[in-house]
Design goal:
D-Maltodextrin-Binding Protein, domain 2, 2 domains, five-stranded mixed sheet, 9 helices, binds adenosine-5'-triphosphate, binds magnesium ion
């Protein structure tokens, strides 16, 4: 049995067409059923539904053989040096789904450039403290990081922080909250991650599945071009 970890929402929705292109149908709609383990049309393949941030943990510890996780989540997970002693994740493929960028945003009326020029300490609220820390350290900017778990946009509006580090796709959420993007940190997309031990033990099935994903990504890229 092969277990694939997915998170509900964006990643599940964007993974379905790839799975479909690989000839795999997921047998239940997670928005309708309460099941956390779902069968697929492919013999010996099941899907488990976990929180987006839990995908690397499941795959690392063998709760799933492979999974789909955003680069944002993967970077944060590895920088946290999570899971003492657990083996690193094998990352064979950029699936090119759930694409967005990680950016710095501030209130429209906050002069970010001046704050940096003056060497002021900037208060930054984010879910991505590890990635943000590395980004500002590389720029030589002094920051106080404030860890949040959601609704980052609220932080500058309430005076909790001067800036946020968050994911941006269209920018409409920022705009609706009178925030502006002042720095792009990196492009984000979802990656296929595989447990290295599973790859050894179930080599044939996993290789077949990774190859099928790869062909589906190629086909989707060609269709979009
Ligand atoms: P939860 O909503 O359960 O707290 P989450 O916010 O991490 O978890 P999603 O919002 O579904 O879950 O995000 C999952 C992944 O999708 C993120 O880790 C990121 O890689 C990607 N993602 C997040 N926001 C966007 C966006 N605006 N556009 C495109 N991809 C995004
Ligand atoms: Mg979310």
């Amino acid at each position: 049995m092969i277990t694939l970890a997915l998170s509900k929402g964006r990643i599940f929705d964007d993974s379905l067409p790839l799975l479909h292109a690989a000839g795999i149908e997921v047998l239940e709609d997670p928005e309708k059923s309460r099941k956390l383990i779902i069968g697929t049309s492919r013999q010996g393949l099941r899907v488990v539904l976990v929180r987006a941030t839990d995908v690397p943990t499941y795959v690392e510890h063998g709760g799933a053989d492979l999974g789909v996780a955003g680069l944002d989540v993967l970077l944060e997970h590895s920088a946290e040096g999570a899971a003492g002693g657990a083996t690193a994740l094998y990352r064979p493929l950029d699936l090119r789904i759930a694409r967005c960028r990680m950016s710095v945003a501030v209130r429209e009326d906050f002069d970010y450039a001046a704050a940096i020029r003056q060497g002021s300490r900037i208060r930054v609220a984010t879910k991505y403290t590890q990635t943000a820390r590395q980004h500002f350290a590389a720029k030589g900017v002094h920051v106080d990081l404030i860890k949040l778990y959601g609704s980052m946009e609220l932080a500058p509006l309430t005076g909790l922080a001067d800036a946020i580090v968050d994911l941006v796709s269209t920018g409409s959420t920022l705009k609706a909250n009178h925030l502006v993007e002042v720095e792009r940190i990196m492009d984000i997309s979802s990656r296929l991650v595989v447990n290295p031990a599973a790859l050894k033990l179930k080599r044939e099935e996993l290789r077949g599945l990774i190859d099928a994903f790869e062909a589906a990504v190629q086909a989707q890229a060609q269709a979009q071009a």
